[in-house]
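Sample intake sheet
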Amino acid sequence: MHVLNIHEREIFAEAAEVGKLIDSLASDNDALWPKAFWPPMRFDRPLSVGAVGGHGPIPYVVEEFRPGQMVKFRFIGPLGFNGYHWFEVLPKGEASVLLRHTIGMRAEGPALLSWPLFIRPLHDALLEDALAFAQASVGAVPVVRPWSPWVKLLRWLMSGGRAPGQRTPKPAAPGAL
């Protein structure tokens, strides 16, 4: 099954400022990944081509990294995930950019069930939280998409009832990046 999954948010900030969000991924000062309530993104070294890591049960390797513009990851698991996912900053207008996350992969074998039933709903919720966190990180009021009842149930089951609830990130002070 071919999978194309895109999440994007218009952010009213300069491309260089939004690009810093991508560059901060998996660092101590990560301003993009919502690690307060999702498994953190971690790598075996700073974000760079060849870095191996992932988040939760999803491992991947950095295939391409253009600082301030784009980072592309190749899935090395779970079984049946064959393809890539990436973040990129795209020009939108004079005062804004699009921050986009894309998955382009072929789901095979066990992923034919795990992707649509479990991983996609969690992924969609995580990415929407990441985009809200990105907005807050540049000082904008975040647009928060509420988790579905299915996502809440999956998180509760996976954590043994200990998963934190969804929170609205507070906008950062101007120039905080």
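Comment: The longest strand covers residues 81-91. Residues 2-159 form a domain with the Alpha-D-Glucose-1,6-Bisphosphate; Chain A, domain 4 fold (CATH 3.30.530.20).
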